[in-house]
Each structure stands twice: as C-alpha cells, then as structure tokens.
C-alpha cells in the first residue's frame, strides 16, 4: 500500500526510480493475491477436509515459498522482455500497461479470484450442510448468525472484495463498493481474529491484568503473587 501511494502521487516520476517502484508495486500486488490463495487453501483444509488427514509437513515454509516466490515469475519475464513496460506512462504512473498488464497482472488476479470464489462456495456449502445436522442442537438464530459471520469473514479473507474492483470499469456502484470494502479488509480481519476470538481476548486481558500489578507502586509482593495465582487459575 505504501508503494502504491508513492507511485500514485507521482513523487518519483523520473525513469529509474519509477521503474523500481513499478516493479515493487507489481510484485506486491501479486504477492498479496498469492497469500489470499494460501488463505483459501488453509480455510478449505480447516473447514471442509477431515481434520488431521491433510497435515502437510513444513506447511508455513511451503506457503511462504509459494506466496513470495510465484510473483517473481511474471515480474522477471516482463523485466527480461522489456524493462520499459514499467516506465512512467502519459499520466506519470509506473505500472505495466496494454498487453503486459493483461497477461502479467490481470490474468493471474482473475485466476486467483476465480479459485477463491470456488473455494468460498464449497466452504459455505459445507458449513450450511453441517448446520443442518446441528439444527436440532442449537437455535435457528444462532446458526444463522454463525453462517453470516463465516460468510463475511471468508469474503474479506479471500480477497473477494476485488470482484468489485474488476467490475469497477463497468459500474460506478462497483467502484464505490470496491473502495469501501477493500479499505475495510484489515479492520474486518481484526474484528474476527482479535476481538471475535475468545482466546485472543483472554490473552490480551490476561496480559493487561499482569502488567497492572507490575507497574503499580502501591501493591505489595504478596498481592502481586496472589493476583498472578488467581490469573493462572482462571486461565486453567
């Protein structure tokens, strides 16, 4: 996002710095989408496949190699074919255009968004099917809220907000929806993974409870020990 802001403002519009920014922007955009694809695969393994049957050794290392390594391929190809595709255009924007944009930017993005849409549909189908089995155990409202929450989380986590971005050229409404949803992606993930997770809330609450006695000058060592023991008992 920082590279995009620098490129969009045109602060470095000379040839060489602009080419460097264009390369970094192209690489970072593709890397972001590759991480969204990794997220889709992980969520599919967690929510659809049988837990434990798809355990992959060195999963994080392999995910990093793919997400950070795959974007190097189209960037390297463009650099080897014609480095000037990253030169500033008539608007002063440093980014591939024309055929290079369609082949090295739009095609990979479309492939990943399409794959994530398929995974999104499969996960929702699995979640709804599992909810139908559990319907006699939980209330209808609770199950519906869980389905809605899962749908919203996956929509942002898998980068499906970019569907609006791909359609922005055909509809002003899609352009506004893209600007709103894309900028809220990090905030929505924070709500679900930090505020919405009981373990995360307990972790930060526990850390705050431990810090307060340590920073207080009025508490005695015995009081601090008692507070720590009480916190450990609550955690257990």
TrEMBL record:
Keywords of the record: Membrane, Receptor, Transmembrane, Transmembrane helix
Bilayer topology term: Multi-pass membrane protein
MF terms in GO: G protein-coupled receptor activity
Biased composition (Basic and acidic residues): 225-236
Positions of region (Disordered): 212-236
Cellular localisation: Membrane
Primary site of residence: membrane
GO cellular component, one term: membrane
Pfam families on file: 7tm_2 (PF00002)
Membrane-traversing stretches: 24-47, 59-79, 99-127, 148-169, 175-196
Gene3D superfamilies (alphabetical): Rhodopsin 7-helix transmembrane proteins
UniProt name for this protein: Putative G-protein coupled receptor 112
Organism (species): Zootermopsis nevadensis (Dampwood termite)
């Amino acid at each position: 996002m920082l590279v995009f802001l620098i490129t969009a403002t045109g602060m470095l519009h000379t040839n060489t710095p602009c080419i460097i920014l264009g390369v970094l922007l192209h690489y970072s955009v593709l890397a972001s989408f590759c991480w969204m694809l990794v997220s889709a695969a992980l969520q599919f393994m967690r929510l659809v496949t049988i837990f434990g049957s798809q355990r992959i050794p060195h999963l994080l290392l392999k995910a990093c190699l793919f997400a950070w390594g795959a974007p190097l391929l189209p960037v390297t190809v463009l650099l080897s074919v014609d480095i000037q595709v990253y030169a500033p255009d008539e608007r002063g924007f440093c980014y591939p255009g024309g055929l290079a944009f369609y082949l090295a930017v739009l095609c990979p993005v479309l492939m990943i968004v399409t794959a994530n849409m398929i995974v999104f549909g499969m996960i929702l189908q699995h979640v709804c099917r599992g909810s139908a089995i559990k319907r006699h155990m939980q209330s209808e409202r609770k199950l519906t809220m869980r389905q809605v929450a899962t749908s919203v989380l996956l929509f942002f986590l898998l980068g499906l907000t970019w569907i609006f971005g791909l359609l922005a050229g055909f509809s002003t409404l899609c352009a506004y929806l893209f600007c709103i949803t894309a900028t809220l992606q990090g905030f929505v993930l924070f709500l679900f993974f930090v505020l919405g997770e009981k373990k995360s809330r307990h972790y930060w609450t526990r850390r705050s409870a431990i810090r307060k006695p340590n920073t207080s000058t009025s508490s005695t060592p015995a009081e601090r020990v008692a507070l720590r023991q009480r916190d450990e008992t609550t955690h257990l």
